[in-house]
Design brief:
This is AAA family ATPase. By secondary structure, the chain is of the alpha/beta class. It has 28 helices and 14 strands. The protein folds into 3 domains: about 150 residues, P-loop containing nucleotide triphosphate hydrolases (Rossmann fold); about 130 residues, Zinc Finger, Delta Prime, domain 3 (Up-down Bundle), CATH 1.20.272; about 240 residues, no CATH class. The longest helix has 26 residues. About 5% of the residues have low confidence. Bound molecules: zinc ion (ZN).
Length: about 675
């Protein structure tokens, strides 16, 4: 172990814009300011400690003052100003580190900066931990920024922007500094290891990235802490250095409840030295991870830390099976899905809420007691089950908005998109015929997201105003290198494919007019070719386009050769895939015939849907079986509806309810039990 934990941090701190990893939006913005005659802008950088806020502020300040900037806009590092020992124009204050008087007299600090001599012509005031400023200091800053008498450039950094107040925030260019994407974090560790000739087990670096949550400074310091001369970095070493014994605790906990030792399970939980929030997250990820990797026997990374050990947790599942006398397949899966639904219903925001969730979960696993028949609590109508890890809600226009816990597009969201796109054909017998990309020209991510949400509401308005059944669409908020934050829409717009141009131009014109109420935007559109195989191909291409920014953790190059990811199985071509980029959820919503409400309505009389995706029938997903299913389904639906209606002519009140229940009981809620006129995939 070395004695100076900051050494790597200093060596590997980015010196130019091009060396900054994973903050493309901010870097592009700063470079464009420098490129446009060194525009001065007041900035607010939000993000966790170690995310790189200070580095970005220093790069901007140095670039503003440098006498011969590099081609990428960065400071040269060699001119007189760059080498000025007085910092060439940058004044850094750690606001939280100031004492009370200093904080109160921020004016005095500014006066000092004003008179102090330095070579740089632009004085940049960097206030780190700016949320520690009190109201008077914020007022003073507001005035200083408003008047701009002294030509300062202000750069504020904070982990808690809300504390700065709207008035100040509205006068700053706001940027969010994010954790690195896991692939980028891993690449950073690999690069440094190579430069320092450190020998390592690739899995150990993956684990380190997961422990350090992908913040560059923590990553490099963490790497330095565990690397000694001649040592190989192993998984064991990382576990030992950073106390990763959570997996053993989870295993003991899982085994206790599987064996029916509920008191023991509670003891383990309360002895566990973790915050309630982290405990709850661990348990949730553990349950979901077991579901995919053991119950379903698939290979899905829910949490990189857990994943390495999850297969060895099979004992938990087999103990449970044995105790409850379950068969391997369906029975256990249903029990487990009830646990998933529990976690899908509970959001984890803070410690107090998480503690409550854990208490409720302990009640929930009571259903895994021997004497609890799960089936008794089932309702006769089975709505589309919420998928694990995402949560759906309705907005004012009745759109279904999906919330995920992750900043990246997740497998659960892909599942929603694929399934609903399939359900839509099964019920309506119609294909999606339009694909739009809408890009608002907004200054910041929140503004762009708001503009897109407004566009979505208006799109829903335009479409529902047509007064026809059988329209619907999915909207994804995405982010890319070229387009910044933008929206992708695909769906069925009635009349468009058949009468093509005039109808569509009218629809598009309406979209444009509505969208531009909220500021400028660009809309690109594509319409399905008429009929047959081409129309089917258009539908699935547009749907898979929405999924193409899926981020599958763990599927980096070292895994790619040995297993196939979701996009591979769906047949999304490599050139059509987009670099996954973080965007604050919610980023996915459904309108019209794709909302929860519409799907529940369509599932009346136990008319549930088939999902080739959930059955892993990947070669059937895009082959168009839904068009035949739609005809079978319509017949059956009408038949059931007629029978239901005739009951209400014979009975009333409680008796009607009873007769209806009897009838529903005859119609199994498993969609596979209905008659089919086409070759199905589950009986081969
Ligand atoms: Zn220079």
């Amino acid at each position: 172990m070395t004695t100076d934990p900051e050494r790597y941090d200093k060596i590997y701190r980015p010196r130019t814009f091009s060396e900054v990893l994973g903050q493309d939006d901010i870097v592009r913005h700063l470079r464009s300011l420098i490129g446009r005659n060194k525009l001065r802008r007041n900035l607010l950088l939000c993000g966790d400690r170690g995310a790189g806020k200070t580095t970005l502020a220093r790069l901007y300040a140095a670039a503003l003052n440098c006498e011969s900037n590099l081609p990428d806009g960065s400071a040269c590092g060699t001119c007189e100003t760059c080498r000025d020992p007085n910092g060439g124009g940058l004044f850094e204050y750690d606001t939280a580190g100031l004492n009370k008087e200093e904080r109160e007299s921020i004016g005095a600090l500014l006066a000092q900066a004003r008179i102090s001599k330095c070579r740089g012509s632009v004085k940049v005031i960097f206030l780190d931990e700016a949320h520690a400023l009190d109201d008077d200091a914020i007022d003073l800053l507001l005035k200083e920024i408003e008047d701009d008498r002294h030509g300062f450039v202000f750069c504020l950094a904070t982990t808690a922007p809300a504390k700065l107040g709207e008035a100040l925030i509205s006068r700053l260019m706001v940027h969010r500094v994010r954790a690195l994407a896991p692939d980028t974090a891993l690449q950073l560790l690999r690069d440094i290891a190579a430069k320092q000739s450190i020998d390592y087990d690739p899995k150990a670096l993956q684990l380190l990235a997961a422990v350090k949550r992908n913040y560059p400074r923590d990553l490099v310091i963490g790497l330095e802490q565990i690397s000694g001369p001649g040592d190989r970095i192993t998984v064991e070493l990382v576990k030992e250095a950073f106390g990763v014994d959570q997996i053993d605790i989870l295993h003991a906990y899982g085994l206790a409840f599987a064996k029916g030792q509920f008191d023991r399970a509670s003891e383990i939980l309360s002895a566990w030295q973790e915050s309630p929030l982290r405990k709850a997250e661990w348990i949730r990820n553990y349950i979901v991870s077991l579901y995919y990797n053991v119950v379903l026997g698939r290979d899905v990374v829910v949490d990189p830390l857990l994943h390495g050990a999850i297969r060895e947790q099979g004992a938990v599942v087999s103990e449970l099976q044995q105790r409850l006398g379950l068969t391997a397949g369906r029975d256990l899966r249903e029990h487990w899905e009830s646990l998933l639904q529990f976690w899908a219903r509970h959001r984890l925001d803070d410690d107090a809420g998480a503690q409550l969730t854990i208490a409720l979960f302990e009640r929930q696993i009571d259903i895994l007691r021997d004497d609890s028949p799960l089936s008794a609590s089932r309702s006769p109508i089975v709505p589309v089950a919420p998928p694990p890890m995402v949560e759906a809600s309705s907005d004012a226009m009745g759109c279904t908005v999906i919330r995920s816990a992750s900043e990246y597009m997740s497998a659960a969201e892909v599942r929603e998109i694929i399934n609903r796109a399939s359900f839509f054909i099964q019920h309506h017998g119609k294909l999606f015929n339009v694909a739009l990309t809408m890009r608002p020209f907004a200054a910041s991510e929140p503004e762009a997201v708001e503009a897109i949400a407004a566009f979505r509401r208006k799109l829903a308005g335009v479409l529902s105003a047509k007064g026809e059944d059988g329209w619907g669409g999915a909207i994804l908020i995405d982010r890319s290198e070229e387009r910044g934050v933008h929206a992708r829409f695909t769906g069925h717009v009635p009349g468009v494919a058949e009468q093509f141009r005039p109808e569509f131009e009218q629809f598009l014109g309406e979209c444009r007019r509505r969208a531009s109420d909220d500021g400028d935007c660009e809309i690109q559109s594509e319409v399905a070719p008429a009929g047959g195989k081409q129309a089917l191909r258009f539908h699935w291409k547009a749907v898979l386009d929405l999924c193409a920014s899926l981020y599958e953790p763990g599927l980096d190059s070292s895994f790619a050769s040995t297993r196939r990811g979701i996009l591979d199985r769906l047949g999304v071509r490599v050139k059509d895939r987009r670099d996954p980029r973080p965007i604050s959820p919610p980023r996915l919503s459904f309108i019209g015939g794709l909302t929860d409400e519409a799907l529940q309505e369509a599932s009346r009389f136990n008319m549930t849907f088939l999902s080739a995706y959930d059955d892993s029938a990947f070669d059937r997903i895009r082959d168009g079986w839904e068009l035949k299913e739609a005809a079978d389904r319509r017949r059956e639906f009408n038949d059931r509806q007629t029978k239901f209606a005739s009951l209400s002519r014979q009975f009333t009140g409680d008796q009607l309810k009873q007769e209806q229940d009897v009838l529903l009981g005859k119609w199994p809620s498993d969609a596979k039990f209905r008659l089919r006129s086409w070759p199905v995939w589950w009986q081969q």
